[in-house]
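## Example record

The block below lists the input lines for one assembly entry, exactly as stored, with component labels intact.
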Amino acid sequence: MRMNRRTALLGAATMGLAGGARRVRAASKYSPGVTDTEIKIGQTMPYSGNASAYGVAGRTQAAFFRMINDQGGINGRKINFISLDDGYSPPKTVELTRQLVERDQVLLMFYSLGTQTNTAIHKYMNQKKVPQLFVATGASKWGNPKAFPWTMGWSPDYHTEGAIHARAILSALPDAKIGILRQNDDMGNDYLDGIKEGLGPDGWKRVVADVTYEVTDPTVDSQILQIRNAGATAFLNVTTPKFAAQAIKKAAEIGWKPKHHLMSVSASVGAVLRPAGFENAQGIVTAQYVKDVSDPGWADAPDYKTWKSFMDTWNPTINPFEGSSVTGYASAITLVHVLKQCGDELTRENVMKQAASMHQLEIPMLLPGIKLNTSPTDFYPIQSVRLARFETDHWVLFGELQSRDVA
Amino acid sequence: MAAIVNGWAMKKGFGLVAIIFWIVLALLPMVGLITEDPSFEYYMFMGQSMLIYAIAVLGLNLLIGFNGQISLGHSAFFALGAYTAAILMTFGGWPFWATLPVAGAVCFGAGFLFGFPALKLEGHYLALATFTLAIAVPQLLKYKPIAPWTGGVGGVLLDKPEPPEWLGLSVDQYLYYLCLIVAILMFWLVFNLLRSRSGLAMMAIRDHAMAAGTMGVDTALYKTVTFGISAGITGVAGGLSAITIAYVAPDSFTLQLAISFLVGLVVGGLASLPGCLIGGAFIVLVQNSAQSISDWMKTTFALRYDVPAWAIYGVLLLLLMYVMPTGVMGGITALRQKISGRRTTRVNAPSSTVVRPGKTAGETTPAA
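Predicted C-alpha cells for the full assembly:
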C-alpha cells in the first residue's frame, strides 16, 4: 500500500497535475482526525472526583498507545491519544467531548467512562456520526445499533451477567427458593431484567423475595432478614461494594447459608470480601471475564507475562493490581485490532463497520475461551463470563464458559 | 441597556465601554459567517457555558457581595432550576423558554423559605447551613418517591431546541443568543435593584446590620428576600444549563459546582457586576487550561509522573489572589487609580466585609 502511494505521488509530481494528488487521496480514505502519520483519538475519564479510582484505565491506555507508537504505530500512523478529565460530571463530559470532536477533530471517542457521562453525549455522538466506541460502563443500553449505530459497549453488560447467574442457580439447585437484593437504580434494574430472562417465566416463580434498597440507606440488615424469613435458599446479591460487604456479614451473623451469588461490580477481594471477613465469604460465587492478576495461577501464562512487562516498562507509576489496569489494557488492544482492520480506509463509517465485524477474536488478559463477537445487529463484544468460587482468600474458577447467546 | 451601562460604569464616560462590550458579545456569533473554522460551534457552546456561569455567579454575588451573607449551597438552586426546566419540558411539554421564569420562581420560593431559618445564622454558620444543601441535593434527586420525575440516578434526557428556520441560525448560535438575552435581562434586573432603595438597604445591611436596623431597615425581611432573589437568579442559570446541555443528572450538581461559583465570584471581584462575567469565563477556561498546562509540563520536561491538573489550578488561583487580592475587577480599579493618580469615587460598593462579619465590620476592603 505504502509503495503504491509513493509511486502515485511520483507520477503526480512528474505530471504536475492536481488531479494526480487527488488520486493519491483516493487510495486511502480518511475521516477527520487521520493523516498519513497520525490517528487522533479522544477520551473523557474521571481523573479527579468521586470516581477517580477508575482513572487507572485511562492512564494505562495512554501508556499502551505510547508503546504502540514506539513500535512504529498502526500501519505507520502514530496514535495521538487525548484523554481529558471530566471529574465524572456530565456537563463537563459534554463540553470536553465537543472540544475533542469539534475543535481537536478526533476520529473517534474511546472508552469514555461512566453511565451518566456517556448518556449525556449519547445523542450528540450519534447525531454527529462519530464513533463512541467501547464505552466503559456495564449498562445494557449501549448495544442498540438500530437507534444508536455509532455507540458500542465492550465489557459484559449487567443484563448478560444477571442472566448467567440466574441460570447457574437453576442448574445447581433446581428447586431453589430464590431471594434477590438489589440497588434501586439503573444498574439494579439492568441486572433484574437479566435475571428474569435467565430464570424464564417458570423460574421466576421460584423467587420468594425481590427486595430493594436505596443507595442512601445506612444498612441492608433488615432486607437480609426479610429475604431469609421468606425462606430463600439461593441469594442473588445485586449490590454495590459497601452494601455487598454488609450483606455478607449480616447473612453470616444470623447463620443464614444460602447459595450466594455476588455480582461482579462487588467482587473485589480488597474492597468487599476482606471487610466482610473471609470466613463469612467462603463459597460465594461470582462471574469474571478478565484474569485476576492477584491470582498466582496466571504467573506462567504468556499474556500475563507480556502484560506484566508492559506494566513494568511503560506504566511503572500504576499499581498493577488495580483492576482497571487490566480492563484498560485489554480494551486498548481491542481498539488497536479494529484500527488495524481498517487498513488505509480510516473513516468513521469503516471504524464502526470493523468494530461490528469481530469474529471469535481473542484478546490477551481475558479469561481463556472468552472471545469477542460482534455483528451489525450485535453491539455487545464480550458476552461470556466464567464463574468463580471464593476459596480461602481468592477466587477459583470453576465450570464451563457461560454465555448469554447459548441460552 | 442604559441601566446596565451605568452599572458597568464606575464613573462618567466609562459607559461606552459597556455598550460596546455587550454589542461585541451579540456580534460574536456572526464571526461564524466569516470563518470556516469547524470548531466555531464548539466556541459558541463555550460562550453559552460562560454566560450561564456568569448568571449563577451574579446570583451569588447579590447575596455575598451586596448583602454580606455567605452561601456554599448555590449548586442546590442551580440543580433545582435545571430539574424544574427539565421536568416541565419532558412531562409538561412546555417550550424551553417558558420554563425559565418558572425555574426562577421555584428557586426564589425555595431560597426564600430557606432564608427564614437561615436568618438566625451569621457568617460561617450560614455557610455551614447552606453547605448541607449542596451535599443533600444530589442525593435527594435520587430519592425513590420522586424518581419517576427526576429519573433517579439516570437523570432526564432532553431534546435540544431547534431554532426557527427564518432566523438562519445554527442550534448553538441560537442557544448562545438565548443565554445572552437572559444574561442581559438578569444584569439589568440586578443593576436596577441595587440602585433602588431596596438595593441601598441590602448594602446597608452588609456594611452594618445594626445601624441599618436602627435607620428603619427591616433586616430580616431584606435578608430573606435577597436570599430568595439570589437563589432565583441562580435557578434561571440552572434552567439554561439544562436546555443547553440537554441532560440533567444528580452527578452534575455536586459540591464542587457550588465551590466553582464561589471561586468565580471571588476571582471576578466581590460586589462587582462585570466581575460576574469574568468569573463565569474563569470557571470555564481555567480548569481546561490547568489540564493543558499539566500536559505541556509533562511532555516538555519529559516528566515521569503526571502533574496533577488540580494542583496547577490551585497555584493559578493563589497567584491571582496574590496579584489581585480583590479579584480581577478590584485589580483593574486599583490599576486605574494608580495610573490616573487620583481616587475614583465608589458608587456601588463602598466596602466588603463579608469575610469578617460581626466584630470587625468597620474594616473595609475596597472592591470594584
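Chain B touches chain A at residues 38-39, 41-43, 45-46, 49, 139, 142-144, 152-155, 157, 241, 245-247, 249-252, 254, 256-257, 284, 288, 291, 304-306, 309-310 (CB under 8 Å). Chain B is about 70% helix and 0% strand.
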